[in-house]
């Protein structure tokens, strides 16, 4: 019984961190789909755009990697939330870098379902997420 109690002692923290992580992902999605000049959901749902799905999936994955690193290395929930916001800003900066520096025609290429554009955006998003997570190991 003592072993079970010991195992369950961390359950409240798990619930708090997991709920906060889910909230962060929903907030990220809400903001991300509004800062992109195209409507990912309609491209995916209506036009069945593989490119939009790859780009959006990479953005989600990159952000989830970053907030996983924040959760793993935070000292408390407030610390986690601060770094979750910083990680979110880094992901938005990654989108801006790809859009304005690497592929100025990114919007048109994703709307036209040109897969290479979606792949590079996804790879940059995941890469920024990995770097985020690594930098959160203070």
Automatic annotation (TrEMBL):
Transmembrane regions: 6-28, 49-68, 80-103, 115-134
Organism: Grimontia celer
Pfam families, per the entry: DUF350
A GO-annotated cellular component: plasma membrane
Subcellular localization, as worded in the UniProt entry: Cell membrane
Topology versus the membrane: Multi-pass membrane protein
Major localization class: membrane
Domain of life, source organism: Bacteria
Entry protein name: Inner membrane protein YjfL
Family: Belongs to the UPF0719 family.
Keywords: Cell membrane, Membrane, Transmembrane, Transmembrane helix
